[in-house]
Amino acid sequence: MILLNGKVAIVTGASSGIGRAAASLFAANGAAVVLVARRQAALDSLVAEIAGEGGRALAVVGDVSEESTHREAVAAAKSAFGGLDIAFNNAGTVGAMKPLAQVEPHEWAEVLSVNLTAAFLGTRAQVPAMLERGAGALVFTGSFVGNSVGLPGMGAYAAAKAGLMGLVRGITADYGSAGIRANALLPGGTATEMAGDQAVREWAAGLHAMKRIAEPEEIAEAALFLASDMASFVTGSALWADGGNAAVKL
Predict the structure, then answer these.
(1) pLDDT band at residue 142 under the 50/70/90 scheme
(2) Which is catalytic among the residues 26, 157, 175, 240?
């Protein structure tokens, strides 16, 4: 089944991890994809990989905490592919790992900027383009951190990821009647660059009922569902893709 045939999607944080896996999966399902991240070489490699498999992709190099990056991505989607239907606002950072009272204000601001304010900036650029198409789907990568648990040293990250749920509900209230859907994807531990060394990954696996962490491709599959018309009546919600982390504490 080709779930995104004829659709145009933006994927942020596309140079690695969940974003890279989602961009490849979206392209394989028929979408033209605009890839956004800071690393030119990694994006160019993915564009070439997608093109080699018969897909369509282009790269926009930029920092998601800057409004101009999102404007450029939307402009690229419209000029190269004719419009915008889907945005997977996935880029994020853990930031400084320390107890909250030791977090410097600039460290707090950086974490919220990349994880939460960037999602707002993306929305602000993306929604008008989707309204031009008469519909659209926004997906935001949240986390089990901040939504089902707090973890030591991750207070700023938890606050930002919890804030995404408010953003999702706000978008739904403002634009649901106009055909714009917004949902949060809440992964558990995932084998990405942010996951730490093997010892940390083994500790994280123990938090999950399935006693393992996810592969990026597994989270990408959940993002594909939310982005596709299979989720046509799903909006304002959170999809847990966390191996049972939120359901149990063993």
Answers:
(1) very high
(2) 157
